[in-house]
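Fill in residues.
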């Protein structure tokens, strides 16, 4: 698997029943990190200016403005802070994000780091229609959020209890084929 982004590793014996761990790191092009750092720097400057203006307005030492602008300024500051938190989260995901598959003879455990929730556990005997999917040829496909680990066009899909799951979104075809073969192995 030359050029693969997937790292199979055998976990320590302390993890009960886990036979194999496959780590799929997030792989974005280098300019995306730079772009996010620039956006975060611009956000920081504007956030600082908004905060300074809001403090001046509340103290009454700023430029003369009606008192009614304080709630709007506070609301703008709040939403701009949320936008900055989202930018920071995206940067953290691009730099440190990864999808971890833990395999045992009867289970598949899917985790994403940085952790945002509990791991998803699947009974391997109930996984149906395991296949490699592709976004090739689609004009628009969902590439937003932390469900994507790369910028390639393949993923692994399967049906589980009436629901279709897609994992390892955005990996190369060779990596997706490797994952399917590992998931099919007993």
């Amino acid at each position: 698997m030359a050029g693969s982004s997937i790292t199979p590793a055998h976990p320590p014996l302390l993890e009960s029943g886990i036979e194999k761990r496959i780590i799929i790191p997030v792989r974005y092009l280098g300019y995306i990190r730079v772009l996010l750092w620039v956006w975060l720097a611009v956000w920081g400057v504007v956030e600082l200016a908004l905060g300074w203006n809001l403090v001046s307005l509340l103290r009454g030492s700023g430029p003369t403005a009606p008192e009614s602008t304080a709630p709007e300024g506070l609301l703008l500051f709040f939403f701009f802070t949320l936008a900055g938190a989202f930018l920071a989260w995206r940067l953290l995901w691009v730099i440190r994000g990864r999808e971890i598959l833990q395999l045992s003879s009867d289970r598949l455990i899917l985790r994403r780091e940085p952790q945002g929730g509990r791991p998803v556990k699947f009974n391997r005997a109930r996984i149906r229609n395991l296949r490699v999917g592709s976004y090739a040829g689609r004009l628009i496909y969902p590439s937003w959020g932390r469900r994507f680990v790369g910028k390639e066009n393949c993923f692994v899909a399967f049906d589980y209890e009436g629901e279709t799951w897609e994992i390892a979104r955005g990996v190369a075809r060779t990596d997706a084929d490797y994952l399917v073969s590992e998931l099919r192995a007993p």
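The domain at 7-26+97-184 is CATH 2.30.29 (PH-domain like).
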